[in-house]
Amino acid sequence: MVDEEAPGLWRRTPRPWHGMTPAVWWRLLARHRFRISPGRWPLALTVTLVTAANAVPALLQRARRGEQIARTEIDPPPLFIIGHWRSGTTLLHELLSLDPQFRCPTTYQCMAPGHFLLTERALARRLGFLLPEHRPLDDMRLGWELPQEDEFALANLGALSPYHAWAFPRSSGDWEATLDPRSFPPAEREHWQQALLAFLQAVTLAGPGRLALKSPPHTARLGLLAEMFPRACFVHTVRHPLAMVPSYLTAWRRMAAAVGLQTGERPDLDGALLRLGAGLYRGFAADRRSLDPARMVEIRYEDLAADPAAQLARIYHHFGFPNTPDLAGLVAAYRARVGPYRPARHRPSPALCAAITPLWAEYAARYDYALGVPPA
């Protein structure tokens, strides 16, 4: 696999707002004063129609399954994969999804969080033609049935999320302020927590297995998630900052181009994204100190890419998860099926290196990465 951008991909990529109800969709538009680029008006009209179509099944699911969802206990406790964007969270999520003891939210569930219990079985296979073969931001596979990031569900449910910035990439707002619900106004924090809990209860209701969740923004929420799910486990992925951050900047632009309601970008985009990425770790050290070390394991992306089976074994051993028969064989079959992953090389300019170094010096020292020279 090669990390490449597909021209015109935005026409076939599901948006993180296709699963919204009309009320959530219009609230998002109003928050950004309906500043949609003329070239994206057809897209906005399409999303408006899709959100209208979501209203009825969402009401039906709430009426038919709402009480059952609310009574569902999330047990065993979830496993959260956290870490900066482009640090290997998606690769680890896909690897865990090979093991039947885990249940990962699917792309369909995250893009239709309000009604997937009623519609996924009937629609997911029929809508396959709407998806490109790979994600717009890299060359990882994309499919309705494949594991997906629960942050998309939160964005679709109207919870504050940094992913709404993809819709309006020219917005000059403080994107970092959308990371940690502990800093939200009380009503927004309550809505965020209720949205996450209800979504995870619905996914639990959809089938057995320990929930395996991945979302880079959850890195900023470690303490809150540990409080909400007192027995939850966390895997923190790390990567060389001079490889990770430039890749993240490129990937963010590709995603905004693929799903955005605006063309172009804010003039200070690199600075805004660097602040957003660093914001993931603003309170991480304090959250980590208050967490029982037995509840977290950290792995390096470089080790995961080189020997994924060994890193899975390390995670299982740390948390005492049951050993799955022939897990190494499942991983080998997965690697044979998808082919070798060759991440694109993003050689940072001297100016970008100078911007990254002070923000990531502590991180680099902690995880033994040398910032003097970009990795090969």
Describe the structure concisely.
Helix content is 48%, strand content 6%.
Describe the structure using short key phrases.
5-stranded parallel β-sheet; mainly alpha; 5 strands; 376 residues
Question: Could you please describe the fold and organization of this structure?
Answer:
By secondary structure, the protein is mainly alpha-helical. 48% of the residues lie in helices and 6% in strands. The chain is built from 15 helices and five strands. A five-stranded parallel beta sheet has the order 2-3-1-4-5, sandwiched between helices. α2 crosses α5 and α9 crosses α15. The N terminus is likely disordered.
For the record, what CATH class applies? Alpha Beta
Radius of gyration: 20 Å
CATH architecture: 3-Layer(aba) Sandwich
CATH level-four homologous superfamily name: P-loop containing nucleotide triphosphate hydrolases
The number of distinct structural domains comes to: 1
- Beta content: 5-15%
| Number of H/I helices | 15
CATH topology (level 3) name: Rossmann fold
Provide the spatial order of strands within the biggest beta sheet.
Answer: 2-3-1-4-5
**What is the typical, i.e. mean, pLDDT?**
89
Outline the low-pLDDT stretches: 1-13
Shape: globular
Separation, N- and C-terminal Cα atoms: 18 Å
Counting helices, strands and paired strands, the structural category is: mainly alpha
What is the subunit organization of this protein? single chain
User: What is the string of helix and strand elements?
Assistant: HHEHEHHHHEHEHHHEHHHH
Biggest beta-sheet profile: 5 strands, parallel
Kindly state the percentage of residues in helix. 40-55%
